[in-house]
């Protein structure tokens, strides 16, 4: 989907340099309740339009805006240009940071931008930065709570599409990305999907990290974890970031993920004393040996519609527990991902969509 417009919304008179942008004064302007958004089709391209009420100035829409042309606008006076992307509903603010190895905004500013009532709204802010150690690019991400994870699977697909737009790459392309989880290699497919080599899963308990003792060599596989007085069977996997995967309670019935009270149980796993760096938690329902369904509680972001590294981790856990094949479709609340844990090279490959939603500018 190509969103071909950005808009100016003004609560007070704004300088003319902000035309075709979307300024928001973080911390002082709420969710702009008087603005109603709709999409219309103009010459086959989707256009984002804003209808204004008497409390706001008229808006301007522009067609056929590309990330490169939009982000080339001069950032002055605390203005941040960005592009909003989503991968299966896991949404991110993408920032062109290729001219510096330091993020353009602080972790505190990122948390404000991610606020869905007082900011832009997102699960995280991702920075496209210069590559290091021979890689093409560096990816850093700040979560919606301001913390910095090692990597994000859905985020890296959005990152890949963002780079392709910035560099005007057409057709099938791949490049190398340095992340806190190591080297990641995404490949944009001819159909626009993004296939990502997520590397080799880490199973050694102290490297996940977890304080649970290894019960299969140094790995934690189908081990007991007591959470709020209830015993769960868990397998611990790192995809460069920590994951705790569970298929249900010890001796309990088959897990029905739609029945979970995720906001209640999720934080208890995330902050459990057995996870010194906190953890992402995947609750999994097995539909067949090639079809799994999950809900996720992400470290630093809470309940999200999708988690790419989590989908990879759960396929590893399902294989290790003898529940699934190495190639699976994983259903997440935001849609499906195709995950394969290849026996030949021990790498995990994730394939799924990512698309631009809108372009904007924020007053910091």
TrEMBL record:
EC number(s) recorded for this UniProt protein: 5.1.1.7
Alphabetical UniProt keywords: Amino-acid biosynthesis, Isomerase, Lysine biosynthesis
GO cellular component: chloroplast; cytosol
Presence of keyword Isomerase: yes
Enzymatic reactions: (2S,6S)-2,6-diaminopimelate = meso-2,6-diaminopimelate
A GO biological process held by the record: lysine biosynthetic process via diaminopimelate
Family label: Belongs to the diaminopimelate epimerase family.
SUPFAM superfamilies membership: Diaminopimelate epimerase-like
PANTHER family referenced in this protein's UniProt entry, alphabetically: DIAMINOPIMELATE EPIMERASE, DIAMINOPIMELATE EPIMERASE, CHLOROPLASTIC
Organism whose genome encodes this protein: Brassica carinata
Name listed for the protein in its UniProt record: diaminopimelate epimerase
PROSITE patterns: DAP_EPIMERASE
GO MF annotation, one: diaminopimelate epimerase activity
Pfam families: DAP_epimerase
Pathway(s) of this molecule: Amino-acid biosynthesis; L-lysine biosynthesis via DAP pathway; DL-2,6-diaminopimelate from LL-2,6-diaminopimelate: step 1/1
Location, primary (coarse class): plastid
Location in the cell: Plastid, Chloroplast
């Amino acid at each position: 989907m190509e969103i071909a417009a950005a808009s100016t919304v003004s609560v007070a008179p704004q300088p003319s340099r902000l035309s075709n942008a979307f300024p928001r004064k973080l911390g002082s302007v709420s969710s702009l309740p008087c603005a109603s958004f709709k999409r219309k089709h103009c010459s086959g391209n989707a256009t984002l339009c804003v209808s204004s009420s008497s409390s706001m100035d008229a808006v301007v829409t522009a067609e056929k805006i590309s990330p490169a042309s939009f982000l080339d606008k001069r950032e002055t006076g605390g203005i941040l240009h960005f592009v909003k992307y989503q991968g299966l509903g896991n949404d991110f603010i993408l920032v062109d940071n290729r001219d510096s190895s330091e993020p353009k905004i602080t972790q505190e500013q990122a948390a404000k931008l991610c606020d869905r009532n007082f900011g832009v709204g997102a699960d995280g802010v991702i920075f496209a930065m210069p590559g290091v150690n021979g890689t093409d690019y560096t990816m850093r991400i700040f979560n919606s709570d301001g913390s910095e994870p090692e990597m994000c699977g859905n985020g890296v697909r959005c990152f890949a599409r963002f780079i392709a737009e910035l560099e005007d790459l057409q057709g099938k392309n791949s490049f190398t990305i340095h992340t806190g989880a190591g080297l990641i290699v995404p490949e944009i497919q001819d159909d626009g999907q993004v296939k990502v080599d997520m590397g080799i899963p880490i199973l050694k308990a102290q490297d996940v990290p977890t304080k649970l003792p290894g019960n299969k060599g140094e790995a934690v596989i189908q081990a007991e974890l007591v959470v709020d007085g209830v015993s769960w069977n868990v397998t611990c996997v790192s995809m460069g970031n920590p994951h705790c995967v569970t298929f249900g309670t010890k001796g309990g019935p088959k897990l029905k993920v739609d029945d979970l009270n995720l906001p209640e149980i999720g934080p208890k796993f995330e902050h459990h004393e057995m996870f010194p760096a906190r953890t992402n938690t995947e609750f999994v329902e097995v539909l067949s040996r090639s079809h799994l369904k999950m809900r996720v509680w992400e470290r630093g972001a809470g309940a999200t519609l999708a988690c790419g590294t989590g989908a990879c981790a759960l396929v590893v856990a399902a294989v290790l527990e003898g529940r699934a094949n190495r190639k699976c479709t994983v259903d997440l609340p935001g849609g499906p991902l195709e995950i394969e844990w290849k026996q030949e090279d021990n790498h995990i490959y994730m394939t799924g969509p990512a698309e631009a939603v809108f372009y904007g500018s924020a007053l910091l």
